[in-house]
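Human: We require from you a standard protein entry with sequence in single-letter code and fold as tokens, and nothing else.

Assistant:
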Amino acid sequence: MAVETYYTLTIGGAVNIPFGDQTVQDRWRLVFGNKPSNDERPELSLEEAKVADDDWPAGFLRPNVPPPAPRVLSGATASRQVYPLEGKWEIYEWEIGAQPGADGAYTRLTFVAKAEFEGNGGIDDHKESQKRDAEWFFEHYSKLWHQTLRGKLAGFNKEYEGKLIEPARFRGWEFYCGNGGGGGD
């Protein structure tokens, strides 16, 4: 069974501006920017990953770390057949959206981002990196990416003050870590 870890961030709000107004949608996209990728970043050690604190949006994606040593498969001790325990973090969802509310009389704004780690072997094989990632999740409020994003949301809300039906704010923050299955998906 493979290890699977993911976290999902959901943000939303509503402005009293007709849905067709492209200006508010463009401004909303600017809050979030482009989805981050580990392709542009070097792999970090476990210790470096513990203290990694990048700005938004790069800091939202957990850095990749070297995988644990390959495991010798049980029953294959004579051949010493090994099973690589690789795994990596990737953004699987980065959706910046706007939908019409009340037949287009106002604009609902949404953002959903999901990062996922998939690795060979079970959760016990990846426990050091998974413990680090769980700690990061629970300490998110103090991280630079979260502080920057909060500031961007506050700026957006200030810019549209008087036109907000519902301020742009964090709606959900979810974390799952386990052996495959994705928590009942």
